[in-house]
Amino acid sequence: MRSFSPDRRKFLKLSMAAAGSSLILGISWSCTQDTPSNTDNQSDNFSPNAWLRLDPDGSITVIVAESEMGQGPYTLMPMMVAEELEVEWDRIKVEHASLDPVYGYQLTGGSGSIRKGWSTLREAGAVAKELLLGAGALALSVPVIECTARLGKVVHNPSGREVAYNELTDIAAKQPIPGTAQLKEPNEFTIIGQPVPRLDVPEKINGKARFGIDTKLPGMLYATITHCPVFGGKPKSIDASEAKSIKGVKDVFPIDEGVVVVASDTWTAFKAKEVLSIDWEYGNKTRISTESIINQLKARPLEEAQTAWEEGDVETVLSGSNAAVTAEYIQPFQAHVPLEPMNCTAHFKGDGRLEVWAPTQSPSSAYDTAKAIVQSKIERGLKKVQKKLLGIHDDSIDVHTTLLGGGFGRRLKQDYVSEVVQVAQRYEQPVQLVWTREEDVQHDHYHPLTLHKMRGATDENGMLIAWEHIIHGLKVNASGAATLLYDIPNTRVLVQDIGAIVPWGPWRSVAPHYNIFAVEHFFDELARAGNNDPLELRLKLLRDHPRLSKVLEIAADKAKWEARPNGAISYGAAVLSEWGSNVAQIVELAETDNKYFQVKKVTCVIDCGIVINPDIVKQQMEGSIIFGLSAATKSKITINNGRVDQSNYHNYPILGIHETPEIEVIIVNNEEEPGGIGEPGVPPLAPALANAFLSATGKPIRELPINIESG
Fold this sequence. Notes:
28% of the residues lie in helices and 24% in strands. The chain is an alpha+beta fold. It folds into three domains: 2-198, CATH 3.30.365.10; 213-283 and 342-434, Aldehyde Oxidoreductase, domain 4 (2-Layer Sandwich), CATH 3.30.365.10; 290-334 and 446-697, CATH 3.30.365.10. The strands form eight sheets. A seven-stranded mixed beta sheet has the order 13-14-11-21-18-19-20. α13 (510-529) packs parallel to α17 (685-697). It starts with a strand and ends in a 14-residue tail after the last helix. 51% of the residues are buried.
């Protein structure tokens, strides 16, 4: 056990429900300046803001502030509470948090859910347990030291008498916050580390789960939008006569960069959208193309680049080396294409309140977006002052966070929220806006195109002595490239960012995706130039990263790297250490009879510290590998005349079940702080595949996606 002292500035008071039958406990996240915790303004009264609720029926409801888009927070976060609270897993329920400031700024991304909640939610469970132990001792008229919390009950050890938690809520709510509480040590865990069933799965199977697109309200109208094909363009004139002649069409009108159709149902709106005649004002971006962007990146003066990392004297070593190697890699724009297209529902009520139902990765950002539309700058300023000085949350706008049918970073952008609020302002009824797949693909916020210029050198023994990596791109940074994992004496990493020429947004694994491809593939090029086995050289140069070395060694052993046959089978390896996790992947590439290559197997080893739920870790690694393999071999966004060429899955394909290789995931257990699992499995896949292709053909990959055709 590990003791900690609950801080009055960190822990919210216990509170009772209006009927006095539910015990609610809240503990605040660390809040930013713009999202202060209510803890500073708490009186001695109980507060309704909470992470944990014990209900009269014996169930325990955990409030989760993370969006559920398949990655598992509706299970992982409650597991941390349940572990310390000492309750049976089948008693746990989950609710999404409200927008009360006690929950901080709600945003799900960066593989941060577990890392953010690890201490907070365990402490919530531990403090609640201490309060219930005290209440149980009073109820049983025994010393608290003689009591134990076990399976949702307080048990008096000498007599065996017991009392259930739900019978103690009235007494527990009157107890003072304990001076100390105990957190379990990892060897005491009974829930954490176990493959307990996911709480969100049953309703997804039986059809009761409600994603954003499933929102249905009385009298609801349905809308869709067509955006200008060219980035930044706007409608100049609209001929909607044919569209309005379709039965069920209510209205057609412009907003921002698009034209909206409102109808009695979504399919009617979609049909009407197709017959609109719109004269667009394209603006000044019609000359933008993939080719022009690449040319701009190549021509940009190096003097404009920013130094992200420098050690030693790279230029002198490279200039004097007879064994210098150079390479350039290009990675394309990528779309997100989540299965559930962009959608949102909004309703302006008669009392002036706005309700929004959004499948969003950031309810707080959705709230801010809506507020910017419906409130004047003066109103927003006053509300902000009230929030900062008094801790008063503006509840005139309420965001209900639904389940998300995939996010991958796309739903951190709130353009679809902005659009539905603009539309709903015109009506007293609720309005649901749904984008078509074509709008989704052609008006995404894209993972950026990047150009990587690499230089390196080896000594007479093939050891790496110099490394230079210049990252060119739109809204790029050096994450995953600096600091370099490998022990190379002379290194330099530069970043040349030309800004968001096209709509940009975070994409699953963000900068490490493009940077780690360049780092890991160039490493293999240098290793082979120095006549070294790439895996052996990695292990030599990862001497300061024992956890990463260990996962690589395990992956090599599981994939039988040493015993790999010559000819028809080739192997490639790549590693990552980001988001508090360490991952190694080995791709097995087989040559087929028709001279194509096929990815036969991916071996993935992850060390993410303490594992909350091994099943979810495996699910995330498998999903990440499939996601990464799609981007590595199939998907690519290209731009011509200021518009996206692709429009749906037929020309922006994703990996099919029949194309998915065998995937083996091995988890390294230890007692380090938990790391992220949503993103670390993506970046190593493409370089591991490229390295296998290099091994098979002797040809490096200069541009993604990889055409794995022989020769």
